[in-house]
Amino acid sequence: MSDVSIDVLSLSITATLVMYALAMAIGAVRILRGPTAQDRVLAMDFVYVAGMLVMLVLAIRYDSEMYFEGALMMVLFGFVGSVALAKFLLRGAVI
Q1: pLDDT > 70: what percent of the chain?
Q2: What is the architecture, at CATH level 2, of domain 3-91?
Q3: pTM reported for the whole predicted model
Q4: Which of 21, 28, 30, 27 is nearest to 57 (CA)?
Q5: Where are the alpha helices (DSSP H) in 1-95?
């Protein structure tokens, strides 16, 4: 690849990571402020999906497959956590 394409890729990855960090910060504010438990659960889902996207962008930046596996694990645990919280909000008990 030429130097120009490498510079453009590096710049776009950096800009993407900054935007994802900003999105995660906005989601964290929603988690802290609420106003309802459902809003907090939805914001938590948003933050873990944004975190997964950060892991995928880092996998592209560092050309490593380990980040892809970490992103997969993050999504799996996030989904299980979301289901558990939704069940708790509906029934008042997880089990």
Answers
A1: 95
A2: Orthogonal Bundle (1.10)
A3: 0.83
A4: 21
A5: 3-33, 37-62, 66-91
Average confidence (pLDDT) over 69-89:
89
63-90 as b/e: b if 16+ CB within 10 A:
eeeebeebbeebeeebeeeeeebeeeee
> Can you tell me the distance from the alpha carbon of 15 to that of 18, in angstroms, rounded to the nearest whole number?
5
pLDDT of residue 55: 94
Q: Coil, strand or helix: which one is 36?
A: coil
CA distances 29 to 26, 38, 56, Å, are 5, 14, 23
29-39, pLDDT tens digit by residue? 999 998 988 88
Mean pLDDT, the chain, as a whole number?
89
Residue-range domain boundaries for the chain: 3-91
